[in-house]
Design goal:
This is DUF4148 domain-containing protein. There is one protein chain. The protein has 1 helix and no strands. Helix content is about 85%, strand content about 0%. It has one domain (about 1-65). The longest helix is centred in the middle third of the chain and has 72 residues, at about 1-75.
Amino acid sequence: MERTLLIAAAAVLTVGPVAAQSADQYQNRLNLQNSQRQLDQISRDRQITTRDTTRAINDRIDRQSLQRQIDANSMPRYTVDPQQR
């Protein structure tokens, strides 16, 4: 009987630290996964922002270029001075 109690106590003492260590490792792994998800989301957000900014800049440059071409190809506008009539 005493031997059984000693074996049971030894098992509890041995499993306790192992279980605690496993729980700590599990929690650390969860924390690491959550941190990685956050970093991935930040990276995606930055890529989207950079892409949108680049697209907006390129669109503006294209519009300005087209406007210059239109202005260069359009007929000059002469204004008539009313005093010269």
